[in-house]
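During the second year of the project, the team shifted from modelling isolated chains to modelling whole assemblies. The rationale, set out in the original proposal, was that interfaces cannot be judged from single-chain predictions alone. As a representative example for this report, we include one of the complexes processed in the last quarter. Its constituent sequences, exactly as entered into the pipeline, are reproduced here:
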Amino acid sequence: DAGVIQSPRHEVTEMGQEVTLRCKPISGHNSLFWYRQTMMRGLELLIYFNNNVPIDDSGMPEDRFSAKMPNASFSTLKIQPSEPRDSAVYFCASSFEQGWQYFGPGTRLTVT
Amino acid sequence: GENVEQHPSTLSVQEGDSAVIKCTYSDSASNYFPWYKQELGKRPQLIIDIRSNVGEKKDQRIAVTLNKTAKHFSLHITETQPEDSAVYFCAALGSGAGSYQLTFGKGTKLSVIP
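Output from the structure prediction step:
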């Protein structure tokens, strides 16, 4: 099993540009989570899906952030337009029901 | 919602000594408590977990204890080694059969001094 796959691993973009982060969960897992990690705020849950349905998006900072899960093997997190304060490491994680959450390698986003 | 407090934020120990990290949670209905280890520049990785129907769980040099009455749980690492140096996060799973959301503590940076 390849584990949770995220792309890109690093992204550098200019303020105002659209950024799309991608995630492939572990096969058979039915829950998917997007987290953001910064030194100041720690590890924050942005949104999570269960069976491809968004369950709780209360952590999404503002309307510039959106997430989709069109099928069980793919999810995207989009930021449009991006701002320097969005710079962080974004992790995707997956689990089966209430089991262990396995994290992907993360995407390090830098917005200049 | 759930609130998880973690202490200390930093911890330095001599190699071979023990390290203890403590967490408290607010939702008495929470029933699952995992611990994650995150090395510099890497992803958080689950190292041990405990469910509310047990009070203690051990895996080699790592153990976790849970006190549901006091709503706190702790990570114990014995015979620490330099490779134990990392940031450790505790977490609690939200209550309810339909909840899958983990609330994380702020993390403890553990440094093991050779």
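Chain B has a mean pLDDT of 93. The longest strand of chain B covers residues 86-93.
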